[in-house]
Specification:
Nucleotidyltransferase, domain 5; 15 helices; 433 residues; 42% helix; GIY-YIG endonuclease; 19% strand; globular
Length: 433
């Protein structure tokens, strides 16, 4: 394919799964994206072999066409990608013929099934079919699957390591094995239950029938049956309302709403990895760069933005806007505020490099914020000339040498995004006034 042929396809700026196809319409590679248009466009960059890998360049060059499937969320795209890879076994997705390098989602065959992520090599060596109720995958990247499961667990809590209350009582109140908790006696809720991530299997708050119903929702979700799952939840909500179990009905309604609003870009942070001979290939992947910039009118109506570039590609779903609360006309104070607020969002993956717009003063202010927060991530400042064009980069020299192009792109995107948003806010205010 060529970039011109790609442009003619008019791909949507929506989440989904894309498939590069060969001369006989065979599938060469399957990938997921928060924005199909932006993600696929990156395969036709002039420096693709340098920034990605020779395997990607070869795959894109040999492709004759491309098809895609839009999804309602990035979570749906991740699950659909895994199901399609399992079905079609595309050559540029499969790194090991025995699938030992992939990750799988396992639902165990127990009275209270556990939901676990298992590495392929462990699955095939240590697990038997008699242990597994349901198996989903392969998922190309374990970190993406972990991010997905965090989201799913907030919607449909499940058991992973704690023991059922019956087992604990029978064993004479042994401890509950939970990776995030201290030892707990039988009948006491594990740490995940306290966080709302487990239904209380260990504390006896849920019976096996009710727990099985929740597990069936997870099965439907990872089977890719999103619409069927929503219809099933709607029926359960209606039945609960008819029976005047209004708390249950409200809880199910929250689950439906959560499924309809899943848009987490962290799920696709590893989508750029395509096999090119393993880790020794020397090609960097998954390098997230975050840039920050502010905009204001004479020191008033100050706003700030964060932009994200991953491996040379702007990830627009990850862009963020901040209305600055600092009342003074102080660019340094605004930068300190936006960085401090950004660091409170632990659900956002941390970048390889932070980029700030400005000179030594801005750089040192950013360094203080990160130091106080205990975050040891390199910071680079982009110094501009009188025409507001990049003049030089200051800060971490190793980061500058390794990621100069991405740093400048992220900074340019931050400046554009901040000015665009500030102007839009100003126009709205003028209309109101």
């Amino acid at each position: 394919m060529t970039r011109e042929e790609l442009t003619a396809l008019k791909m949507p700026d929506e989440p989904g799964v894309y498939m590069f196809r060969g001369a006989k319409n065979e599938i060469l590679y399957i990938g997921k994206a928060a924005s199909l248009r932006d993600r696929v466009r990156s395969y036709f960059a002039s420096d693709i072999s340098e920034t990605r890998s020779s395997a990607i360049a070869k795959m894109a060059a040999s492709a004759h066409t491309l098809t895609w499937i839009e999804t309602g969320s990035v979570l749906e795209a991740l699950i659909l990608e895994a199901n399609l890879i399992k079905q079609h076994q595309p050559p540029y997705n499969i790194r090991d013929k025995d699938n030992k390098s992939f990750n799988y989602l396992v639902i165990t065959k127990e009275e209270f099934p556990r939901v676990l992520i298992v590495r392929g090599r462990d699955l095939f060596q240590k697990w038997n079919d008699t242990d597994i109720k349901k198996l989903f995958g392969p998922f190309p990247e374990g970190s993406s699957l972990k991010e997905a499961l965090k989201i799913v667990r907030k919607i449909f809590p499940f058991r992973d390591t704690c023991l059922p209350a019956k087992a604990l009582a029978k064993a004479g109140a042994p401890t509950i094995a939970s990776p995030a908790s201290a030892k707990a006696p039988a009948g006491k809720a594990c740490f995940n239950r306290q966080l709302g991530l487990c239904q209380g299997v260990c504390s006896g708050e849920v019976d096996s029938k009710e727990y099985a119903r929740h597990v069936s929702h997870i099965v439907a979700l990872f089977s890719g049956n999103f619409q069927g799952l929503k219809r099933q939840l709607a029926r359960e909500m209606k039945a609960a309302a008819v029976a005047e179990r209004f708390e249950d009905a409200r809880a199910i309604h929250r689950q439906i709403t959560a499924l309809e609003h899943v848009r987490d870009v962290s799920l696709i942070k590893n989508e750029n990895r395509i096999s090119s001979g393993g880790p020794s290939s020397g090609h960097r992947v998954n390098v997230r760069i975050e840039a920050f910039d502010t905009a204001h009118t004479g020191g008033t109506d100050t706003v700030a933005v964060m932009t994200v570039v991953t491996d040379g590609v702007p990830i627009k779903d990850a862009y963020r806007k901040f209305t600055i609360r600092t009342s003074t006309n102080d660019d340094i104070a605004s930068l300190i505020e936006v960085l401090s607020r950004r660091l409170t969002h632990q659900e956002w993956p941390l970048p390889r490099v932070f980029v700030v717009d400005g000179g030594t003063a801005q750089l040192r202010a950013a360094q203080r914020v990160l130091k106080n927060a205990g975050v040891g991530i390199p910071i680079v400042g982009v110094v501009k000339n009188e025409a507001h064009k990049p003049e030089r980069l200051i800060g971490d020299s190793n980061a500058i040498q390794a990621y100069e192009r991405d740093i400048l792109l992220a900074n340019a995107e931050a400046h554009r995004f901040a000015i665009t948003w500030h102007r839009a806010r100003s126009r709205k205010r003028l209309i109101r006034d």
